Fold this sequence. Notes:
This protein has about 400 residues and is an alpha+beta fold. It has helices at about 10-20, 25-35, 35-50, 70-80, 90-95, 110-120, 190-200, 225-235, 250-265, 270-290, 300-305, and strands at about 145-150, 155, 165-170, 175-185, 205-210, 240, 325-330, 335, 340-345, 350-360, 360-365, 370-375, 380-385.
Amino acid sequence: MPWLETDPVxxxxxxxxxxxxxxxxxxxxxxxxxxxxxxxxKWIDRYxxxxxxxxQDRSRRPKHCPWAADPEVLEEACRIRMSRRVRIGAKKVRAxxxxxxxxxxxxxxxxxxxxxxxxxxxKPRRRRRRRPHPGAPTAPFDEPxxxxxADFKGQFKTLDGRYCYPLTxxxxxxxxxxxxxxxxxxxxxxxxxxxxxxxxxxxxxxxxRTDNGVPFSSPLSLARLSALSVWWVxxxxxxxxxxxxSPQQNGRHERMHRTLKAETTIPPAGNRSAQQRRxxxxxxxxxxxxxxxxxxxKTPASAFKPSPRPMPSKxxxxxxPAHFEVRKVSTNGGIRWHSAWVNVGQLLGGKFxxxxxxxxxxxxxxxxxxHLGWLHIEKGAIIDHDGSSSRNPRL
Length: 395
């Protein structure tokens, strides 16, 4: 049997009609409708004073609240919220208010959020369910320069019809935006020039986290090395690739990209030079002005410091332990191993790799500190971490 649903207003009207009929006493009406005598009298009196409108629910909001937020402070909070194209949240607004008002006058974050919602300044956002991704990068952001992240923020056209490819580089620990450079494309030469300038200015990070796109990765090479990441490894920087189609594994960078897009590209500037000026202004604001929640409402600039590892004049030669076998990769990408030719990859042509015996007929293959895979003597091939063979690369 389904539950019976009743309308409170209809029940009140029914109570009044039965009272007006004179067939029931107040006590009987109270028992029939499951209310107290006082409640029955209340609805009868309201009906007689206001008619049918008196039976509607009234607001329970108090007429006076001594703890209500100061209207002037709320107005200033809305002004701060609306002052930039990208709206900052209640936590950051409260941090700004505390700089101008006594703490006892500044509403809580929840109160500010409710006020913004009531004023229509917050649009509800549909949340996606997070799913675990085995094999995702696990290196911690334990200090500045432990991990830098890099990505291209999707190409778009400026108003002169030319494409702009924003290359962004960020320190993962402090969120410091190291670079935001609009390029003509994703060519290695232009991308490498940006990183060279950053390494000379800020030093070298320990790891570089990127997606699997060009020019950061090459899907057909061992360890997905590209010409750019080979250079990184030579400088002592380990590539830290996220899984394919998993941008959430580089979530800090993607969150910054969302702010960058809203601040600088909607609408785009007239040309690439004007667009670069927008990027420069955004970088200055993001690093020096905008407080960050993960940093305790401090700015990224206050948490960042240059790396103690300087950029060398030229990449150092690899140094392998004494028990390693060292081989030079030929220009066609192979090494000689016990009279057999083993493919390593043309990207490493002219460079030295180290091999360490880890089992019978199995050798670990390294390029500097990067583990490329395992050389299986019987197969005559290097097996990558994902099971792909250097003789039969992944498709």
